[in-house]
Amino acid sequence: MAENSTPRIVHLVDQRTRRMPTPAAALEPATRMLASGHLQDRLHRPLHDLRISVTDRCNFRCSYCMPKEVFDKDYVYLPQSDLLSFEEISRIATQFVAHGVEKIRLTGGEPLLRKNLEVLVAQLAALRTPQGKPLDLTLTTNGALLARKAACLRAAGLQRVTVSLDGLDDAVFKRMNDVDFPVSDVLQGIAAAQAAGLGPIKVNMVVKRGTNDHEILPMARHFQGSGVVLRFIEYMDVGATNGWRMDDVLPSSAVVARIQAAMPLVALQAAQAGETAQRWGYAGANGQHDPRLGEIGVISSVTQAFCGDCSRARLSTEGQLYLCLFASQGYDLRSLVRAGADDADLASAIAHIWRGREDRYSALRAALPPDQGAGTSAQRVEMSYIGG
Ligand code: SAM
Ligand code: SF4
Ligand code: SF4
């Protein structure tokens, strides 16, 4: 396999020490900014999505995310006291919602490893937007514990789940998760989530050329007409440990072409602004999209940047606010909360930080000089730390 034949460059930098103090101006009454339900960054992008990482631990060792060579038995994870408590997460999330966030995704690491996660889900499910609407509350999981937890998460108010699955062939999948975890258990998790009403379910497949790209068609066939939306993600140069190379990326255009050759597709409109996936529907005999056959999505983070309407903020496990998946520094909201900031202080800090945002890494990637461009990533935070 190509994956094993090329040396992997592994940078051992612990990004968790890179913090930015929350801007002092955010705490000064003269410049205090109240939540108005609408917040725009410097590039006029609204704040709509919040991804919250609830743990930096995982029971998988996917080579593209937490390679075993780095995340081994000596790796030091965050101590419990460094993690935001559920109450702290809810307090911070409440202020994000006041600023216009309508969608919250819980992630990690593996979020289902966080004890009593349903308690947090219930707290977040009780939040309402300034217009009085409930949030779009969802979670991304590797599915290993989903069969056990789907019903109680649904009962707590979780609406949907996204499950990651990189192939249907056991040998391929086990090599990618690197902990010998079988496909059948993930499929059981997906079935349990469907039975619990956690739909529409999305399945994310990271495509690595030469490693699992031969699984594209089997995966498409398996999920066609199942009610599950399969999404193909381009392998990204996120973090500093996965030894990313452009050669390993199979562009989404090639993914679509391969499926198209066997199962006709028609392009669909984006369901909402800021959507990361381009949608393609399976065509029926008349050449039109047949909703019974369902749809796929492709997420072209590398070949077609979607920074222009990126409305996502990320809250790390220990309360650092990141403005981009590829950021090298976060803003320390936990210190603010633990120093006794009230809700207005918190709202003001979030407003100042978002209004100063200029991040658009993917859009700039191609134009970056070689020493900062793709493949030289020693400064970036890990995906398992800030959440995908
Ligand atoms: N553990 C959970 C899971 O795997 O679904 C949630 C966290 S994981 C970091 C979130 C998503 O990021 C997963 O769908 C995973 O496949 C994706 N991901 C991780 N590393 C990636 C990379 N280098 N390129 C593209 N997607 C990646
Ligand atoms: Fe764990 Fe998810 Fe990363 Fe895989 S992608 S190592 S399951 S956090
Ligand atoms: Fe958003 Fe950063 Fe990704 Fe661009 S690179 S889409 S700004 S997270």
Protein model, in words:
The structure is a single chain. Helix content is 27%, strand content 15%. The chain starts with a helix and ends with a helix. It has one domain: TIM Barrel (Alpha-Beta Barrel). The longest helix is centred in the middle third of the chain and has 14 residues, at 183-196. Residues 1-14 have low confidence and may be disordered. The protein is α/β, with parallel strands linked by helices and 388 residues long. One iron/sulfur cluster (SF4) is lined by residues 58, 60-62, 65-66, 108-110, 142, 164, 384.
What would the keywords be for this entry?
binds iron/sulfur cluster; binds S-adenosylmethionine; TIM Barrel; 388 residues; 27% helix; 13-stranded mixed β-sheet
Topology at a glance:
Layout: H1 2-5, E1 19-20, E2 49-53, H2 86-98, E3 103-107, H3 117-125, E4 136-141, H4 146-156, E5 160-164, H5 170-177, H6 183-196, E6 202-207, H7 216-223, E7 229-234, H8 252-262, E8 265-267, E9 278-282, E10 295-299, E11 312-315, E12 320-322, E13 330-332, H9 333-338, H10 343-355, H11 361-365, H12 383-386
Parallel strand pairs: 1-13, 2-3, 2-11, 3-4, 4-5, 5-6, 6-7, 7-10
Antiparallel strand pairs: 8-9, 9-10, 11-12, 12-13
Helix pairs in contact: 2-3, 2-10, 3-4, 4-6
| Residue-averaged pLDDT | 89
CATH level-4 homologous superfamily:
Aldolase class I
Strand order of the largest sheet: 1-13-12-11-2-3-4-5-6-7-10-9-8
How many domains is the backbone divided into? 1
What's the tally of helices? 12
What pattern of helices and strands is seen along the backbone?
Answer: HEEHEHEHEHHEHEHEEEEEEHHHH
- Specify the overall morphology: globular
* Low-pLDDT windows of residues: 1-14
Present as ligands are: S-adenosylmethionine, iron/sulfur cluster
Radius of gyration: 20 Å
Kindly state the number of beta strands.
13
**Gap between N and C termini, in Å?**
26 Å
What is the CATH C level class, in words?
Alpha Beta
Proportion in helices:
25-40%
The major sheet is characterized as: 13 strands, mixed
CATH topology type:
TIM Barrel
Tell me what portion of residues adopts beta-strand conformation: 5-15%
